[in-house]
Amino acid sequence: MIYIVTALPCEASPIVKRYDLKRDDACRHFPLYRGDDMFLIVSGVGKMASAIATAYLIAQNVKRDEAGGEEGLAIINIGVCGTLNQRYPIGTPLLIHKVIDHETGKQYFPDILIEHPFEEGSIETYNDVVRREDVLSGRVELQADLVDMEASGFFQAAARFLAPHQIYVIKVVGDYLDVVDFDRQRVAQCISGALDAVDGFIKQVEGLCRVEGDVLTQDERLQLERVKESLRLTVTQSHQLMDMARRYKLRTGRPLPDFSEFAQTRVKVKAEGRKALERIRRLLLYE
């Protein structure tokens, strides 16, 4: 299952048309579109709006069943961005490998595990529109290749539910920080022109999702759930455990090791859980 988050209706419209998505009129909080294997939500502008819509989309629609709904999906933030670097032609799509929140200084790193056709780049998320003159005058000092207003909010919210290799940001260069009048048609054309590459990427991600969803047996999932409970793992630590287990199986082709020692451990403080998780990490990554 692929979840897509866009900020603007004009960013969403080419995607909705390409995948023949249908408006879900039952959703009163956001414009929400559905297909057989895809959800798309339009968040509105800004990192807070993007974070809220992202969390809503995942929380409302993930199926927590025996097949492992969370592990069998990926979420992608798609939209236009600005850059001062004119080596990127207008309409160039980039896959983001680092997201920086300008206000907090926090950095987020998608875990890109698949081959893709994009150039990779970094993006810095601002609360306000960044103008070319702000950068050239020195009032704003850019820390990344691209700038936008949503990526850090999107990533921070998605990471509460999903592992880094399930979270992607694709941004299409829409301007050189010189836009005076916002042009919806131009934005839609930028997204539309990138959709062939995006579609190929989505197909690869869907293949990874199918592998991620099927690689663990039901008994292995139950064993890992017991470990999570016994070690009192946080949401992030639980995602790390599942990710390491899947990678182990994909790399070795063998069943998971016996984790009964960890499932029978009852930790009293979080530090004990962290130490036990590190032992599991060594067991899975270096065996």
TrEMBL record:
Natural source organism: Caldicoprobacter faecalis
A GO cellular-component term linked to this record: endospore-forming forespore
Protein name: Nucleoside phosphorylase
Superkingdom of the source species: Bacteria
UniProt-listed Gene3D superfamilies: Nucleoside phosphorylase domain (3.40.50.1580)
Residues annotated as domain Nucleoside phosphorylase: 3-111
Pfam family, one: PNP_UDP_1
GO-annotated molecular function: 4 iron, 4 sulfur cluster binding; DNA photolyase activity; S-adenosyl-L-methionine binding
GO biological process, one term: nucleoside metabolic process
UniProt feature coiled coil, ranges: none
PANTHER family linked: SPORE PHOTOPRODUCT LYASE, SPORE PHOTOPRODUCT LYASE-RELATED
